[in-house]
Known about the structure:
Blueprint: H1 2-27, E1 32-48, E2 51-66, H2 84-110, E3 115-124, E4 141-145, E5 148-149, H3 154-162, E6 167-174, E7 177-185, E8 189-192, E9 198-201, E10 204-210, H4 213-239, H5 251-263, H6 268-290, H7 298-315, H8 321-352
Antiparallel strand pairs: 1-2, 3-10, 4-5, 4-6, 6-7, 8-9
Amino acid sequence: MNIIFAVLIFSFLIFIHELGHFIAAKASGVQVNEFSIFMGPAIFKKQVGETLYSIRCIPFGGYCAMEGESEESDSPHSFQKAAWWKRLIILAAGAAMNFVTGVIIMIIVFAPAKQFVMPVIDHFEEGSALHYDGGLQPGDRFLKVDGERIYVQSDFSTMLSLNPGDVHDLVVERDGEKVYLDNFQMEKREFPNPDGTKSERFGFSFRVEEATLTNKLSYAWNNVLNSSRIVRLSLHMLFSGQVGVSDMTGPVGIVDQMNAMAQASPTWVDALLNMLAFGGFIAINLAIMNLLPIPALDGGHILTLLITTAYEKITGRTLNPKYEAYIHGFGMLLLLGLMAFIMFKDIFAIVRR
C-alpha cells in the first residue's frame, strides 16, 4: 500500500504539471488536441470539442498535446501562432502548478502539529563550550550558518555538515539585533544522557513553541523555502564534484525512499504525513528543476522562446523552428538516457538489498 500510494503521489504531481499547461493553453486560446491521464495504450477516450480526453493504462504521468507544439501547423489556434507572452505563460504554468501544489501539501502536513522545534537556543547544559561572553547565549535565534539561511531547526545540523571542520561563521538574532560570530569554534563535548550513558554534543537545547495558526503557516512556508534551496545546493554539489550522477535518484528510487520512510513511521497517520511531506518536497523540486534552462525541459523552451522572440524583434526575420526542434530533440535524447541510467541503477540497488 505504501508503494502504491507513493506511485500515486508521484503520478499526481506529473498530472498537476500537465494540468497547468492545459489550463493556461485553454485560457490563451491555444488548441489542445489531447489531454491524457497516465501513459501507454488508452483504456478510456472521450472527445469534447477540440480536445480528446483519455485515461491510459500505465499509471504514471500524463501529457497535454497542443496543436503546433512540436510541428508546423496552419491553425490560427496553434501554439506557435499564439503571442510570445501567452506561450511563455503556458510553458511556465506547469511548474507554477507544481509549486502551488507543494505549498498546499506543506500546509496540510503541518496543520495537525501541536508544537514546533524552533532554531532558537532554549538553554545550555552545564559545561558547554559554546556558552561564554562573546559566544552563544540563551534566546539566540540562528539566522545563518556559513552564509546559508536557517529556515527550520533541522537546517542547523544540515548546514554544519556541508562544511567539514569545527569552525563556522554564524549569524544569530539576539535581543532584536544581528550578532555575527565569525570563525566560531563549534566544539562538542561529552555529556551524560538520561539513561546513564554519555554522548558528544554541543550542549544546548532548541526551544519548543506552541503551534498556532500563524506558526503553522510560517513553518510550512519556511519548509517550502528550504526545499527550494536544496535544488541549488544539490546542483552545486553535482557540478563541484562533491556528488556524481551515480548519487542521483529517479522515480523508482523516490518511491522506494517514500516506502522506507512510511515503514519507519510509528503510526499510519505519521506514515501518511511523512509521505505527503516528501511529496510536497518533490513537487517544489519538480517546479524548480523544470524551469532550469536545459533543452527539453520547460525552462529550455522558455529560454529559446525569449531568444527567438528577441531575434525576431531586432532583425525582423523569423528563425526556422526546425533548429529549435533539433536542440530540444537532442536534449530529450540525453535526458531520456540519463533517466534510463538512473532508473536501472535504482532498480539494481533495490534488487541487491
